[in-house]
Design brief:
globular, single chain, alpha/beta, 21% strand, disordered N terminus, GMP Synthetase, Chain A, domain 3, binds adenosine-5'-monophosphate-propyl ester
Length: 658
């Protein structure tokens, strides 16, 4: 039992029923899981039966010979936007609100399903006029405004493929993603509001497109109203284009395995990976998981606080809730604007009943104190969720008590950009069972989650190992854009034939899953996924840097923050000015979320004999711990070598600290 788990279980005695061994609820979800695994075709065909397909030919699931991933609904034909929108038109549902939206300055908009349907059709008409057709890529670089939803849904309506880039990324990061996806159209806004200031998105696009020869058109939504440069040949205003847009554009029915989108995410190398999702498998997974986990009813107002630039926004703001016909709330800006009770105020005013957020946000609120939520009536809430990183039991308890008033169900949901949707989480929409603070509990239908040791053998209960998924599931991503070999190598070669999630995990004696953080060189900084190598690559581009090693240091609120050890080239002095310059350099190359919390100038970076950076050892030094277990440092690095490296680095860093 881990320390966390011990603490969690003590706390549990206070808050929740114990004696969890096997409850009828657990038996029920395990039974459904087994059924979906035993009969994937029947199970997922039945789920897909609620959705519209223009053709249903062939099996729902095909195993690909010698490949550990499946093909879902490959000969069926459908359209994602049709299922999110057209399916409701002409029914009792069409006048129900799809999104209540609030901008950071306090402006509000509400769109019914009929409104959203009209706007998406018009947006699709504009994109079509700009030459976008089936299979083309459209990059979306937008603030959290309704037009971002229109842009994404309009793209998939045309059978085109969107690549949404998070609005916090820099011009360089945006240009790299536009070029990798070869997008010919970019959708953006003049700006977005963040903490009372304007994020100048159009300006960043202007810089990015200097490096993206294939971009033909930039469509600009007016949000903030500040002056922006418009290139006469390339740029056009959405509010102008929409005047002549058609009210209806027929949705393009595409095969189930047609890509719906690319979403770039960090891996262990410097180059971001374009996770590419299917149309039908992804859709069916969201349709199923949104119900199982969030149990949204017509009485609910559901709010997912993620940004549309991340997978959580794609799956559980845009597609999952609209596939279920839910009414969602959407917010543009910062949690602390104008004060730290902005969220609680909005929950009270709009009567939000389901809240889905991140442990980082919760820890941020804990730091500000209970006084902020206490000022508001949060009694409308009934389900509160968490995603993006392990939720520590203390944060879980605070969330349970101070936001959930000791009565809301907490759904701690484990999944990844690659998985398309939630894989492990409590499922109040299917069955109820006791929770344990810090555990994501049990897998959803058809998720064969197995914790394995180094050799791929299942770990005994209570032992930490690697999370693997040993059977394809419908939401599984299909490939890495333009690099199928890398897809196979990164995800399916460590344990041949099964999906390697690169997370540590443990199953306790009651069978509950505990997700224990990344097992690779990826950090989770305030829930954002950042590769250590990507920051190293950014640092090395600076003329003063000879070499660098980046690690994630524990942080009370953000979980981890990057810390860099930097070796300077001869002739450069380790001055505070240079440190500042390097920080600015990383900010300009990768964006604010990647900026190191600390840079140490060192003489040497500890490495194994085969030149792999010894990150665990660096973490020990940076977090001021004695040298940990070195027996598993690869590469036969001897204990003496590791000790020497530790002492040298410690001396360097101690010097830098003084
Ligand atoms: O380490 C896990 C962590 O987030 C990683 C996936 O990050 P990303 O692709 O950015 O997707 C985040 C939103 C789905 C995972 O490998 N993670 C996500 N949710 C949890 C989690 N770790 C523990 N508990 C969770 N509930």
């Amino acid at each position: 039992m881990t320390q966390n788990e011990g603490a969690a279980q003590d706390e549990l005695k206070e808050a929740l029923p114990t004696g969890t061994h096997i409850s009828p609820g657990i038996e029920r979800i395990q039974e459904i899981n087994r059924e979906a695994l035993a009969h994937p075709n029947e199970f997922w065909s039945k789920v897909a039966g609620d959705l519209y397909f223009s053709e249903r030919v062939g099996p729902a699931f095909e195993r690909i010979e010698d490949a550990p991933y499946g093909r879902w609904f490959s000969q069926w034909k459908t359209n994602l936007s049709y299922n999110c929108l057209d399916r409701w038109i002409g029914t009792d549902h069409q006048h129900r609100v799809a999104f209540h939206w609030e901008g950071e300055p306090g402006d509000q908009r509400s769109l019914t399903y009929l409104d959203l349907y009209r706007e998406v059709n018009r947006f699709a008409s504009i994109l079509r006029d700009l030459g976008v057709k089936e299979g083309d890529r459209v990059t979306v670089y937008m603030p959290m405004i309704p037009e971002a939803v229109f842009a994404m849904m309009a793209t998939v309506r045309l059978g085109a493929i969107h690549s949404v880039v998070f609005g916090g990324f820099t011009a360089q990061a945006l240009a790299d993603r536009i070029n990798d996806s070869k997008s010919k159209v970019v959708v953006t806004a003049d700006g977005g509001w963040r903490r009372g200031k304007i994020v100048e998105l159009k300006k960043i696009v202007d810089q990015a497109v200097l490096q993206t020869p294939e971009v033909q058109k930039v469509l600009v939504v007016r949000r903030t109203g500040q002056p922006v440069d418009m290139d006469e040949d390339r740029d056009l205003w959405y509010h102008d284009a929409v005047k002549s847009a058609a009210d209806y554009v027929a949705p393009v029915m595409v095969p189930g395995t047609h890509p719906s989108y690319i979403l770039y995410t960090s891996g262990t190398t410097g180059k971001p990976k374009g996770a590419c999702h299917s149309t039908a498998g992804y859709m069916v997974w969201l349709y199923y998981s949104t119900h199982a986990v969030f149990d949204i009813t017509p009485r609910d107002l559901y709010w997912c606080t993620a940004d549309i630039g991340w997978v959580t926004g794609h799956s559980y703001i845009i597609y999952g809730p609209t596939l279920r016909g839910a009414t969602s709330f959407m917010y543009e800006g910062a949690a602390d604007f104008p004060a730290w009770d902005r969220w609680w105020d909005m929950i009270q005013r709009h009567r939000v009943s389901i809240l889905y957020t991140s442990p980082t946000a919760i820890r941020g609120f804990i730091k500000q104190g209970e006084k902020w939520p206490e000022k508001h009536d949060l009694s409308s809430l009934r389900i509160i969720g968490s995603v993006g990183e392990p939720i520590n039991p203390e944060a879980w308890q605070w969330y349970y008590r101070h936001i959930g008033a000791n009565r809301c169900t907490i759904v701690d949901t484990w999944w990844q950009t690659e998985t398309g949707g939630i894989l492990i989480a409590p499922q109040p929409g299917v069955a109820k069972y006791p929770l344990k603070p810090g555990s994501a509990t049990f897998p959803l239908a058809g998720v064969k989650a197995v914790v394995v040791d180094d050799h791929g053998n299942p770990c005994p209960k209570g032992e930490k190992g690697f999370m693997t998924i040993q059977h394809p599931w419908p939401g599984q991503f299909m490939t890495l854009w333009g690099d199928h070999a890398r897809y196979k190598q990164v995800y399916f070669s460590r344990f041949p034939g099964i999906y390697y999630a690169a997370d540590f995990s443990m199953q306790d004696q009651d069978g509950y899953f505990w997700l224990l953080g990344r097992a690779d060189e990826v950090m989770k900084v305030a829930g954002h996924r950042i590769s250590t190598t990507e920051i190293e690559d950014a640092l090395i581009m600076h003329p003063a840097v000879a070499e660098s090693a980046v690690i994630g240091r524990k942080d009370e609120i953000k979980m981890e923050v990057p810390v860099a050890c930097v070796i300077l080239k001869p002739g450069f002095a380790p001055t505070p000015q240079l440190r500042e310059e390097l920080l600015v350099h990383v900010r300009n190359t990768m964006g604010p979320i990647a900026v190191p919390a600390q840079i140490y100038f060192v003489e040497k970076v500890p490495k194994t004999r085969s030149a792999k950076i010894m990150r665990r050892l660096i973490r020990d030094v940076v977090e001021e711990r004695p040298l940990g277990d070195v027996t598993t440092l690869e590469d036969e690095t001897s204990i003496e070598e590791a000790k020497r490296a530790y002492n040298e680095l410690k001396a360097d860093i101690d010097r830098a600290r003084t």
